[in-house]
Amino acid sequence: GIQVEQSPPDLILQEGANSTLRCNFSDSVNNLQWFHQNPWGQLINLFYIPSGTKQNGRLSATTVATERYSLLYISSSQTTDSGVYFCAVPPGSGGGADGLTFGKGTHLIIQP
Amino acid sequence: GAGVSQSPRYKVTKRGQDVALRCDPISGHVSLYWYRQALGQGPEFLTYFNYEAQQDKSGLPNDRFSAERPEGSISTLTIQRTEQRDSAMYRCASSLSPGAAGELFFGEGSRLTVL
Predict the structure, then answer these.
(1) How confident is the model at residue B1 (pLDDT cuts 50, 70, 90)?
(2) Confidence tier at A95 by pLDDT (50, 70, 90)
(3) Whole-angstrom Cα distance, residue B14 to residue B12?
(4) How far is the C-alpha of A111 from the C-alpha of A66, rounded, in Å?
(5) B31-37 vs B44-50, strand pairing mode
(6) Is B54 exposed, middle or buried (0-12, 13-18, 19+ CB in 10 A)?
(7) Residues of chain A contacting B104 with CB distance shorter than 8 Å
(8) Taking CB atoms and an 8 Å limit, are A97 and B58 in contact across chains?
(9) Nearest to B57 by CA among A2, A98, A100
(10) What would the pLDDT profile of A48-86 be if each residue is shown by its tens digit?
(11) Parallel, antiparallel, or unpaired: how do β-strands A106-111 and A10-14 relate?
(12) φ, ψ for residue B51 (rounded to 5)?
């Protein structure tokens, strides 16, 4: 099945800093989602981004499908941005289980 | 409802008991997925339905796990003869589109603890 790797695994920043989270995947895919798992365990949709760039407030994401990676940018971090950020992709052209495959996540801590 | 609803939110049970976890997807969503998430890990796929048909159950760990969606809406994930290793967060997600191309929306999860 498809492999998803996220980096860095852990990130500690001061409030106001910017960050870039990366997601690499091993096969061609037709969609990609970014999620934020907050400290209460809720899994919140951030972006559905098969390709190109999208922006939502302080967050933006870019997926370069031909090169099999996606980036999530967080600007002017706030303590409420803390949590785990996951990317997830469907089976690639090589097949596999039908559900999204998640990476291990990036654990982000924003310190006041 | 407005979002995916799961119940119970928390379940503590003794080893050997059966448990049933319920998922009510977003109204009109065709596809429904079950995932399991261990502490410190990403969610892992268990099974999925299009309407009432179970399309893929390759992620179910063993035959103690089963799922149904008899009327194409609410789904139940049942774990028989629970074991301590079954302790995890069980997440349900739904999608407007059939297949894996649609955007998935997750519920708040059911946290299962097996003593």
Answers:
(1) low
(2) low
(3) 7
(4) 36
(5) antiparallel
(6) middle
(7) 33, 45, 88, 100
(8) yes
(9) A98
(10) 999 999 999 999 999 999 999 999 999 999 999 999 999
(11) parallel
(12) 55, -130
